[in-house]
Amino acid sequence: MPICAYAKEFLYLCKLKAVLNGGKDYSNNKKNSRKKMKKMMMLAAIAATLVSCGGGGGRPQFGDNEYPVVTVGTSSTDMQTTYPATIKGVQDVEIRPKIQGFLVEINVKEGQTVSAGQTLFVLDNATYQASVRQAQAAVNAAQQQMNTAQLTYDNSKQLHANRVIGDYELQTSQNSLESAKAQLSQAQASLANAKEQLSFCYVKSPASGVVGTLPYKRGSLVSGSNVLTDVANISSMEVYFSVTEKEAMVISQTGLDHIPAVKLQLADGSIYAHEGKVTKMSGVVDPETGSVQLIAAFQNPERQLKSGATGTIIIPRQNNNAIIIPMSCVSEVQNKKFVYLLGNDNKVKYTEIKVDPQTDGNNYVVTDGLKTGDKFVSNGITKLSDGMEIVPITSEKYQQKIDDQAKAMSAGDVLGAMNAADGVKTLVIAILVGIVVIVVIFLIGMWFGSWRAKRK
Hints:
single chain, 4-stranded antiparallel sheet, about 40% helix, about 30% strand, elongated, disordered N terminus
């Protein structure tokens, strides 16, 4: 019979005797009863502790200081780098009026597709139309004056040929003709300017695209400082993102053509159906952020991408000499990561490593701190300390020892091992249950003793 079983049986006999004595003494001496109450409470705690050992078992304990050790090697892995990005149309144009005036017509709606040269807005143009008519009248008058000067000059040439007038009169008529022509040209220029001013009242789209927001309504007084809307050509999109100066130097050496096709993750987490290509890189480093801007072009046939939206650029990359270790063998302290390296004397050394920020959720790619041929502890690191001497074994042997020990464990031991994390909770519950049971038995004993005293 297990030791815990003997302890439980012994405790039961002690409790029975205590109850019987408690009932008898209660009728004679209350002070003695209180003492026995304290003893009963102590027995309850002991009982709970003994009961708690009934589950048996715990985590595997080899007892020989053996830990699994793995030798560092390299492998090929596909990785990716992400950058926050802003999406813009290949041609985003701010629409502003060239003149000041009241907005009398809005011929488009937000989100409408427009073509180049299409009229978007009309400003009040009554004054400009009057200017055009006035300029046209000035042109007509100048035309007539020029016609008259032409007749005078033609007549003067005939008279001069017949020696009726001299050279002076001929030259004067010619000068009058040239002056009339100049006045006509000036009037025509004024007419062209008046027509151009009138055309400014009709705000047209300079490019094909999609209309943005319309912040101004009919009747608003607008001028060149006001943006009436935006027109974005979204047939193809440009996605802007930035890389570090160090990364930009590498790209400059290898060229944009060596950057693989990139993907775009949208704001909802989905991946855009079409891949893009990095086409441009800024030649200036931002002095505030120390970054360099790149532009990736994406086709947008479904018009899914919108100008002004945000996303994440994903650039795939392959590492053929990556050092990959499981996260379970890495401890983290103050955002620094450490592993236990095994030395030639079988003593472990607490060593800091640096890892790639991109992970798959199970493994780290080590960028610094480990090299091929190093050996690290792959399991049980919570029990290790710096400089501790261990017995290194392979991961396969370590797993085999766990399996063998699990087979040798009883059902209660297996259950106890599975619930090791809840041991404290189980102990507390056992103590409370033991206390309740003893108190109930004690109260029954008190009642029984009082009843016997009354009978006597």
